[in-house]
Write a structure and sequence with these properties.
Keywords: Hydrolase, Metalloprotease, Protease, Repeat, Secreted. It is a single chain. The chain is an alpha/beta fold. It is built from 4 helices and 12 strands; from the N terminus they run αβββαααβββββββββ. The protein has 2 domains: about 120 residues, Collagenase (Catalytic Domain) (3-Layer(aba) Sandwich); about 100 residues, 2 Solenoid (Alkaline Protease, subunit P, domain 1). Helices cover about 15% and strands about 15% of the residues.
């Protein structure tokens, strides 16, 4: 989760000793304020001058916190809470435990988990469908927001990078391991001649190479996007009835 934020923006994380002053801290809890087992997932504080600023806390009673697998809620939680510690709030004026907010109350139409890992609301509200899975890394709007605060990391993946099958990203959330395991991600890529390789999927897919666009990959809907300022040159479809949409660069588009 830390690496995913550092890949997108000019942020470096360094582990320090307990005697040093930290900008971001991590802790576990199991009990609530009344001494009973906690029923919350996690919480965090925005940066600031107060003593809790930048601290993130995780409920160790929760199985997905102890085992934060890629594309599952625990991993999403870690990335979300670190986002708070870096200065990102929710896309709207709401918080866990405060009233009963829902997507109908949002002030920002893209306030869903299709656009932002910082959102509380289902991707289905904006036409996506992750089929019960969750992003593990910053999404389209998160990348823009964190780069606004810290600047874009222009050293990230400057070579020829493959996303999906045969991935050389060294990131599990960009790497397809088999045909039954779909992906949820937004690409930040600084340079190179890059490829979406979704050749291992048999689902009907729509692969769109335009920046700030969404693709339907591996049986999910609107689950892959390309961040602003990113160029993906090539796409490889699978064995289904795929639609491949090129951009304004000289693309190589291949079916199965």
């Amino acid at each position: 989760s830390l690496q995913s934020w550092a890949d997108a923006a000019n942020i470096a994380f360094t582990e320090i000793t307990s005697s040093q002053s930290a900008n971001i801290t991590f802790g576990n809890y199991t009990l609530s304020w009344n001494g009973k087992p906690a029923d919350s997932q996690a919480y965090a504080y925005l940066p600031g001058s107060g003593s809790p600023s930048g601290s993130t806390w995780y409920n160790y009673n929760v199985d997905n916190i102890r085992n934060p697998d890629v594309m599952e809620y625990g991993r999403q939680t870690f990335t979300h809470e670190i986002g708070h510690a870096l200065g990102l709030s929710h896309p709207g004026n709401y918080n866990a435990g405060q009233g009963d907010p829902s997507y109908k109350d949002v002030t920002y139409a893209e306030d869903t988990r299709q656009f932002s890992i910082m959102s509380y609301w289902s991707e289905k509200n904006t036409g996506g469908d992750n089929k019960g899975h969750y992003a593990s890394a910053p999404l389209l709007d998160d990348i823009s927001a964190i780069q606004h605060l810290y600047g874009a990391n222009m050293t990230t993946r400057t070579g020829d990078t493959i996303y999906g099958f045969n991935s050389n990203t060294e990131r599990d959330y960009y790497t397809a391991i088999n045909s039954s395991k779909a992906l949820i991600f937004s690409v930040w890529d600084a340079d190179g001649n890059d490829t979406f390789d979704f050749s291992g999927y048999s689902n009907n897919q729509r692969i769109n190479l335009y920046e700030q666009s969404f693709s339907d990959v591996g049986g999910l809907k609107g689950n892959v996007s390309i961040a602003a300022g990113v160029t993906i040159e090539n796409a490889i479809g699978g064995s289904g009835n795929d639609v491949l949409v090129g951009n304004d660069i000289a693309n190589e588009l291949h079916g199965a």
